[in-house]
Design brief:
CATH superfamily of the largest domain: D-Amino Acid Oxidase, subunit A, domain 2
Structural class: alpha+beta
Distance between the termini: 21 Å
CATH class of the largest domain: Alpha Beta
CATH topology of the largest domain: D-Amino Acid Oxidase, Chain A, domain 2
Helix content: 25-40%
Shape: globular
Number of strands: 19
Number of domains: 2
Bound molecules: flavin-adenine dinucleotide
Length: 378
């Protein structure tokens, strides 16, 4: 079988490129070294976050990606388990950030809820917790550990994409890839190896200063009430560029530095999303280093649960704990390199792959088409 495009890596970034290439008319082969998806793409919240992404290209990419998720969800049998975002402002300084956000173009589809409206929408919230809340409609959530295998299966059946697992690529060259057993050739190669990419592209990773970010995650037993939307709070407003770059965020950051010292020390902000069975996925923390942090700390889990408690009271029992990691470069959404003609290295370096990969992949494929590498493209 001849292929036009080889994709290395079957996480969300690789699958997004497989989709964009197949939609452009290419015959696509995806190679992944693992027998099943076990990387960042199945360890995440599955939260496709539009609201709060960096203003400009980042926000546009996320909007496009959310729209592709909505297009592919039904045909691929992927459930959208939650819609929108409820961002609960607990402090007046956080409310000021939301006011400033509402004055931007990024507030499309957003509105502010007063405490009474918020209590109706999110009855589990402790009374007196919120000054105000932002309710968006642009965001969505999928159950990643189920969605990623379904997306891969649908690419195979509906788009004729060939996916080979248990195949470790040892080298990417112009016109193909080399594995332990054999080589594969194609005029275009797109390497999407996630945070393990330094093994294939050590120079590009070193030049960009790619670090590994390790996160701790928890699943809580079903609290018994429904959360229509994922929930975030004040700490997210100094973490997500779309809010953090707004002038009032400086005053919030100052207050949080005094009041949330421990959470900030572990890079914690609250995201609480709900699964179809009612259980809650809650996180997360961020530790940056040259390698993945092998040991999950109980104190960090406790600090994450303290953020939950501030909004919802005593947390339900923890039923699952895990860590995940992603490639990180401060202030940079992604690494898109062209080490050889027709070859791309694509790594999302901002921890937003579920939210932005589909949009980014379309840009990368358009670039290859523009350079004449995908001549058959429709
Ligand atoms: C805990 C956690 C929570 C997160 N929450 C969110 C969220 O809610 N929303 C959001 O938008 N983003 C979130 N992210 C970020 C998001 O998950 C990542 O940006 C995204 O999954 C990266 O996708 P990827 O395909 O690059 O990486 P991966 O999913 O890690 O996939 C890379 C694949 O490449 C394969 N591979 C690597 N090297 C080779 C090789 N040499 N040969 C063959 N195969 C190879 C690996 O086996 C792997 O399957 C989160 C991340 C984590 C860790």
């Amino acid at each position: 079988m001849m292929y036009d495009v080889i994709v290395v890596g079957a996480g969300i970034v690789g699958l997004a490129h497989a989709l964009a290439a197949a939609r452009a008319g290419a015959r696509v082969l995806v190679l992944d070294r693992d027998a099943r998806a076990v990387g960042a793409s199945v360890r995440n919240f599955g939260f496709v976050t539009v609201t709060g992404q960096a203003r400009g290209a980042g926000w546009q990419r996320a909007r496009r990606s959310a729209s592709v998720w909505r297009e592919v969800a039904a045909p691929a049998g992927i459930a959208i388990v939650q819609e929108g975002l409820t961002l609960v402002a607990r402090r007046p300084e956080a409310a000021a950030v939301l006011d400033a956000f509402m004055a931007t173009e990024m507030a499309e589809g957003c509105r502010l809820l007063d405490p009474a409206e918020l209590a109706r929408r999110l009855p589990a919230l402790r009374p007196g917790t919120a000054v105000v809340a932002l309710q968006s409609s642009a965001d969505l959530r999928v159950e990643s550990r189920d969605a990623i295998p379904r997306l891969a299966a649908w690419l195979e059946t509906a788009h004729g994409v060939a996916i080979r697992r248990g195949v470790a690529v040892t080298e990417v060259v112009e016109g193909g890839v080399i594995t332990a057993e054999r080589s594969y050739t194609a005029p275009v190669v797109i390497a999407c190896p996630g945070d393990e990419g330094a093994a294939l592209f050590p120079a590009a990773f070193a030049a960009a200063g790619v670090r590994r970010c390790t996160l701790q995650m928890l699943r809580l037993a079903a609290p018994g009430d429904r959360h229509a939307s994922p929930v975030m709070s004040d700490l997210s407003l100094v973490r997500y560029e779309g809010y953090a770059a707004l002038p009032p965020a400086a005053a919030l950051a100052e207050r949080l530095a005094r009041e949330e010292r421990e959470a900030l020390a572990h890079g914690i902000h609250l995201i609480a999303v709900q699964s179809a069975d009612g259980t809650m996925v809650v996180g997360d923390s961020h530790v940056y280093g040259d390698s993945v942090e092998p040991f999950a700390r109980a104190a960090v889990d406790d600090a994450i649960l303290a953020q939950w408690s501030a909004l919802f009271g005593t947390p339900p029992r923890v039923v699952e704990r895990w860590t995940g990691s992603y490639a990180s470069v401060a202030g940079r959404h992604s690494l898109v390199e062209a080490p050889f003609p027709g070859v791309r290295l694509v790594v999302v370096t901002s921890g937003t792959g579920a939210s932005t990969a589909f949009g980014l992949a379309e840009e990368v494929i358009a670039g290859l088409v523009g350079e004449g590498h995908l001549r058959w493209a429709r």
